[in-house]
Amino acid sequence: MSDLFRDEAIKNLRSPEQLDTVLRLTSPIGWLSLAVLFVIIAIVTIWGVVGSVPVQVKGMGVFLDRGGVVYSVIAPAAGRIDAIDVKVGQVVTKGTRLAVLSLPNREAQLRDARRTMESLQGQYDRQLIFSVRDVESRNANMRDTIGALNAKITADKNHLDFLQPLYDAQQEELEKGYITRKQLEQTRSDIFATKQSIRDSRNKIAEARSAQVEFENQQRRTMAELEQQVITAKNSFEEAKTFLETEKEIFSPVDGRVTEIDVKLGVLVKTDDQVAVIEKSGKNLELITYFEIGKGKKIHPGMRAEVAPSSIERDLYGSIRGNVESVSDLPETQAGLMAILGNETLVGKMMGAGAPIKVVIALDKDPKTFSGLKWSSSKGPPLKVTTGDTGFASVTVREERPINLVIPIFETWITGG
Predict the structure, then answer these.
(1) Residue 1's pLDDT is what?
(2) What is the DSSP letter of 250?
């Protein structure tokens, strides 16, 4: 039986009936996969030759308003922070109170000035009372003196009226021998003495009046000097009060937004210490970006840029579209950065790799988004990008063929370098 089947199998193998049967090396799915692979390779090869990849440089920057100005608000005097009335990000108007200072030195000056003013005012008031009394008393005495002198003058005149006719009569009597010459000379001497007494009394009246005028003038000069001292003390008091009032409260110099507060409640500050930074609003938001000098020199106006605010998740909302508006010719100095940014910490970061190149990136607008800016992959976040926010910029400096990027890698791999 087994030999029969063996012979039949040998016959079948020798039979030419199955010589035209197709030999199946692979399935149709395998051929399809191979074709797809060849197509992908072809596409990648073509893309590597004719396609392009953007080459970008990255930098860090801060959002500022075009035309906006940064104002550093400083402490007008040394003191302690008693109150802080605003927060970072708060919009303020010119004259808004930002903080309140406790000024021990100014308060001591005001107390001293008040004591001096009150002391001099009291001295003036007392002296005025004494002066008025003295003037009135001396006036009364002068009137009494002048009255007595006038009475004496009247008596002397009456006596003179008696002596003059007597002298005339005695001259006739002397000629007739009724009296002696000695009697006549005595009468003449009495007339002279009486006239001299009248002159003396009149001189004393003039002297009394002159002395009273001089006394009153002296009193006026004394009161004027005291009054001037009081006025000076009052001016010093008002000046100390004004200094305290103007230096105690710190106000915003402009309309704008508080971008930085550099003090805390209760801390001591010195004169001209920075208390806060106010950004005055401009027309358009832009990113002031700083690149290492080697990267910055590759950037030119008109190049496209992508801007990613630090406070917004890029994976969710993408980046802001923009283009390079200007590039500084020379590296920025630390003073220049401070004038624009107004923040020493931020300036330190920007200067970390040396003096950077400043690049101004204008942001594309889109009125349909909440922020008013054009975003790469969505309508953007439900937040506004504001002045003072930091961000990162990627600027496309050129387009490169992919194959040009791959070949150096293979050369390095092959040569082992």
Answers:
(1) 46
(2) E
